[in-house]
Design goal:
Function: Catalyzes the oxidation of the 1,2-dihydro- and 1,6-dihydro- isomeric forms of beta-NAD(P) back to beta-NAD(P)+. May serve to protect primary metabolism dehydrogenases from inhibition by the 1,2-dihydro- and 1,6-dihydro-beta-NAD(P) isomers.
Strand content: 25-35%
Helix content: 25-40%
Family: Belongs to the bacterial renalase family.
Bound molecules: flavin-adenine dinucleotide, ligand L7I22QXI
CATH class of the largest domain: Alpha Beta
Number of helices: 8
Enzyme class: oxidoreductase
Catalytic activity: 1,6-dihydro-beta-NAD + O2 + H(+) = H2O2 + NAD(+); 1,6-dihydro-beta-NADP + O2 + H(+) = H2O2 + NADP(+); 1,2-dihydro-beta-NAD + O2 + H(+) = H2O2 + NAD(+); 1,2-dihydro-beta-NADP + O2 + H(+) = H2O2 + NADP(+)
Pfam family, one: Amino_oxidase
């Protein structure tokens, strides 16, 4: 057994790095503060079935990511989603079809990260509070006072604000992470006993508290009923209403939805609200990943790249590539 590499975060970035490292013959040990993997690609189980409250779909513009998505499709983890798309501007709803290929996890968004995790060693419900280096190796401290280690390298794969403290051993990396602003998103799911009388299956919105809405049943592999909708508030609305109660957020976004959708909207049979505090970086970056190869500390995530699923996956690959290159150089010297 070689000394494993610690990976903090089992979102798509951490899992992308883990997969590449394991394929290269290295051992990894993953940690996540949540009860399951997926991070912002997680799905919530509810009485109305599984609901994608975070990432709604993803596009694949980079060749390497497109190849990975084809493998996911072949294994049944992902499928193309072809919604009837609309846009809403100044209160007007219009069809807005396009040629973009969009993908979703099947039968839920979290299927992809669950499958990527497979049997990799992981500790859930474990919030890492400190990443520190001893004489030779890395050690982690968690919020319950437990220590973990030794590890040959450490990879921090959390959103930037949560990465800053964990990168304290490399102040330059920590200050880059600290410079990233991440915007919040309030997400609400509403389920209706009877299907709403509308052809809309996905809608980009402007001039509204909402910036996106999607009909769950239009995605491949989802339960056929009830008629569930996921609504995302814009960053601006979410920022201004960050501390509103879930009940008030549901009421406000239900109202905005009813105003936008152009058909009768009865009271929902189930409603869920989730606040994503670190939903997306305010601006895209082109770092790919952050690394201090000599120290053996790395950081990855969507905030190092495009702020989307594709960017997070690519960032994990970049981290694994840099780490392997450093090991290879070290072996030669
Ligand atoms: C509402 C919403 C809608 C979105 N819609 C889309 C979309 O339609 N298309 C698209 O491409 N992208 C979308 N995104 C963005 C996409 O979800 C992210 O870019 C991507 O999932 C980020 O992956 P990641 O691995 O970098 O981070 P995350 O998924 O955030 O993973 C980080 C993990 O680290 C864990 N963690 C954090 N701190 C600690 C700690 N101290 N100790 C242990 N574990 C820790 C977290 O629990 C989490 O599991 C959306 C995001 C949100 C929130
Ligand atoms: N809410 C969050 O926290 C969050 C949301 N994110 C959203 O994720 C998607 C992913 O972006 P990607 O570039 O992969 O997808 P698209 O090409 O589908 O969309 C990009 C933006 O382009 C506009 N757009 C695209 N298609 C259409 C269309 N048929 N009609 C109208 N407009 C379209 C739209 O932008 P605007 O509404 O015009 O501003 C799309 O947003 C994307 O939706 C993100 O918003 C990512 C991370 C966090």
């Amino acid at each position: 057994m070689s000394i494993p590499i610690a990976i903090i975060g089992t979102g798509i970035a951490g899992l992308s790095a883990a997969q590449a490292l394991v394929e290269a013959g290295l051992d990894v040990q993953l940690f996540d503060k949540s009860r399951g993997s997926g991070g912002r690609m997680a799905s919530k189980r509810s009485e109305s079935g599984s609901l994608d409250l975070g990432a709604q779909y993803f596009t694949a513009r980079d060749r390497r990511f497109a190849e990975a998505v084809q493998q996911w499709r072949a294994r049944g983890w992902a499928a193309e989603w072809t919604p009837a798309l609309y846009h809403a501007r100044e209160g007007r709803l219009s069809p807005s079809p396009d040629e973009q290929v969009r993908w979703v996890g099947t039968p839920r968004m979290s299927s992809i990260t669950r499958a990527m995790l497979g049997a990799l060693p992981v500790q859930f419900s474990c919030r890492i509070t400190e990443v520190f280096r001893g004489d030779q190796h890395w050690h982690l401290q968690d919020a319950d006072g437990n220590s973990h280690g030794p590890f040959s390298h450490a990879i921090v794969a959390t959103p930037a604000p949560q990465a800053t403290n964990l990168l304290a051993a490399a102040p330059k990396l920590a200050s880059v992470a600290a410079s990233v602003t991440m915007e919040p998103t309030w997400s609400v799911a509403l389920s209706f006993a009877e299907p709403l009388d509308t052809p809309v299956e996905g809608c980009f919105a402007q001039d509204s508290p909402l910036d996106w809405l999607a009909r769950t049943q239009s995605k491949p592999g989802r339960a056929p009923s009830p008629d569930s909708w996921v609504l995302h508030a814009s960053s601006e609305w979410s920022r201004h209403n960050l501390d509103l109660s879930k009940e008030c957020v549901i009421e406000a976004l239900h109202g905005a939805f009813a105003e936008m959708i152009g058909c009768a909207v009865p009271p929902p049979v189930e409603s869920i609200a989730h606040r994503w505090l670190y939903a997306r970086p305010a601006t895209a970056h082109q770092w790919g990943a952050l690394s201090d190869g000599d120290l053996g500390l790395y950081a990855c995530g969507d905030w190092c790249s495009s702020g989307r699923v594709e960017g997070a996956w690519l960032s994990g690959q970049e981290t694994a590539k840099r780490l392997q290159a450093h090991i290879a150089n070290h072996a030669w010297n």
